Fold:
Amino acid sequence: ESPPVLYKYAISTGDDREILERVLTLEPRFHESHYCLGKEALEANDLYGGEAHLAMAHEYFPDSLPIVTKLAETVFQMGELERSLEFYDKALALAPTDREALLGKAICLSFLTRHDDAMLVLHEMIDLGQWYLGEAHYWLAWNEHELRRIERALSYVEQAKKYIPMDTEARTLS
Structure:
């Protein structure tokens, strides 16, 4: 029962939890297992279990973009917006143009009612081009709407619909 062999088997078959727990029993320093257990807990809608495993993985792999980003998403879902923002900032320190981290940060700032800061991040995403342009325009519209700048919001809604024409949320803003 070699922990590396068990780990590789667990992640390749999708039969993770029991095997990964066995890996940690055999070798508690096999911290990669916590990342996989955290993702599995999240898939089972166990935010607190997922967050606990991701935090353990983060302790040993603080510069892992996937771990930091998944932690940011998880604590956001838990309603810990300031903490989520800290993780998104850390993710962006690791990868300044990571679109998922930029979008997550913008959404966090939006819900923290830091609309101008959120819109700066969203414009940065648009300037980078290519990915998540519809989402960036959607959140620009959302923030403009929150600031009661309806004409500007409608303009961004129209842009969002061009990039994500089937998105019902973009349509509900208009």
About this structure: The two ends are 58 Å apart (CA to CA). The CA atoms of residues 38 and 53 lie 5 Å apart. The chain is about 80% helix and 0% strand. The chain has a mean pLDDT of 89.
